[in-house]
Amino acid sequence: MPTSLPHFQLPLSAADFLRQYWQKAPLFMPGAAGGLDSPDADTLAGLALEDGVEARIIQGAGNGPWTLTQGPLEENIFSEVGEENWTLLVQSVDHFLTESSLLLDSFNFLPGWRLEDIMMSYATKGGSVGPHFDRYDVFLVQASGTRRWQIGDLCDDHSPRQPHPDLKLLAEMNVQKEFIAQPGDVLYLPPGVAHHGVAEDSDCITWSVGFRAPDYQILMAEIAGECLAEADSMLFSDPQRTPTNNPAILSDADRQQLIRGALDLLNPEAIEKAVYRWLSTPRQDGLEFAVDDHHIRIRDPEIALVRHGSTRLLMQGNRVWLNGEAHALTEQQRPLVQLLASQRRYTHNELEAVMSETAQELLHEWIEQGFFAPL
Ligand code: SIN
Ligand code: CO
């Protein structure tokens, strides 16, 4: 049983952090986090073998060679990898182990839609994923054991890479700083900063709180999809056509009519829908909501209810988006849903203050569907 729930505290004001470091510079924060003793390595390994869980193992150290074993993983993999120099990576652990998702409440100085997930790694001595950079902001939270972090320069897609077919490892890293992370230490890295973390012992668990930075190409595809789903099929027509004297060309008028017709399909309401739907969809969508003791082990008499780790909420005026679906809210339901969307655990008093009959009905429905769990 954990002694306290996962938590993190910036060692400076959120305003100062955002101004000086966010998306700009790395920051090492000794002792900034706590309550990280669950999951242990066995639980993480067990989760990695479960259906629908994204997991991989990277073997290698120093200058390589590096091997990637992509999930789904088989149980015997753990007897084959040896004693040292390997790392197990499990994606979106917060979606599966609700207790770990509570760490995300500590990041409420940023909008919730900006959060992606918590990836966790378990490494044996010498284990590492190699020198690399990520395209997203990340807070690397040391949960157990010790990891040596080397930090390099800012990289981009042109930075030389090792010739590995699956792993995007840097060919060289100019080490600028080094930190030894002990349990509770947190390293913030902005996108693009080269880093290399090596486990110093065989008890090394690191949580990566990753952020969502929408890729505009994907967002555009979502917008197009939503707009097309709402549009009726309409064909080009030209009943006022007059004879052409050059059948080889596309006239200015025809070109403009074609382009206008296509762009008219971009309707503002569907565009907004696409944005909210996408931002309120969890990284791993459509999970089976099996809310049981394995997933939710929080025992705090003050806490009456928790949000399931894979429930994602985003307010939009008088409606709320829950895992990609919009729900219209009554005036009486709004205060409850505002509370549910702002944090992940709720005390008896907090709930009582926002409860009404219709709010109770809505909450009951969402509990039935597994989006929330009473304790
Ligand atoms: C790890 O936890 O081993 C790797 C995390 C990272 O470097 O992004
Ligand atoms: Co990384």
Identify the notable features of this structure and list them briefly.
19 strands, 3-stranded antiparallel beta sheet, binds cobalt (II) ion, 375 residues, Jelly Rolls, 25% helix, alpha+beta
Would you mind describing this structure in some detail?
It is a single chain. The protein folds into 3 domains: 7-211, Cupin (Jelly Rolls, Sandwich), CATH 2.60.120.650; 216-238 and 248-279, no CATH class; 293-374, Malonyl-Coenzyme A Acyl Carrier Protein, domain 2, CATH 3.40.366. The mean pLDDT is 94. With 375 residues, it is α+β, with helices and mostly antiparallel strands. The protein is globular and about 80 Å long. The protein has helices at 14-20, 41-48, 77-80, 93-96, 98-101, 216-230, 252-263, 268-279, 334-342, 348-354, 357-368, and strands at 7-8, 27-29, 33-34, 55-59, 67-70, 86-90, 115-123, 138-144, 147-154, 177-181, 186-189, 193-199, 204-211, 303-307, 313-316, 319-322, 325-328, 345-347, 372-374. 25% of the residues lie in helices and 25% in strands. Bound molecules: succinic acid and cobalt (II) ion. Residues 87, 121, 123, 129, 134, 138, 140, 195, 197, 206, 208 line the site of succinic acid (SIN).
Set down the secondary structure blueprint:
Layout: E1 7-8, H1 14-20, E2 27-29, E3 33-34, H2 41-48, E4 55-59, E5 67-70, H3 77-80, E6 86-90, H4 93-96, H5 98-101, E7 115-123, E8 138-144, E9 147-154, E10 177-181, E11 186-189, E12 193-199, E13 204-211, H6 216-230, H7 252-263, H8 268-279, E14 303-307, E15 313-316, E16 319-322, E17 325-328, H9 334-342, E18 345-347, H10 348-354, H11 357-368, E19 372-374
Antiparallel strand pairs: 1-3, 2-11, 4-5, 4-6, 6-7, 7-13, 8-11, 8-13, 9-10, 9-12, 14-18, 14-19, 15-16, 16-17
Helix pairs in contact: 6-8
The chain binds succinic acid and cobalt (II) ion.
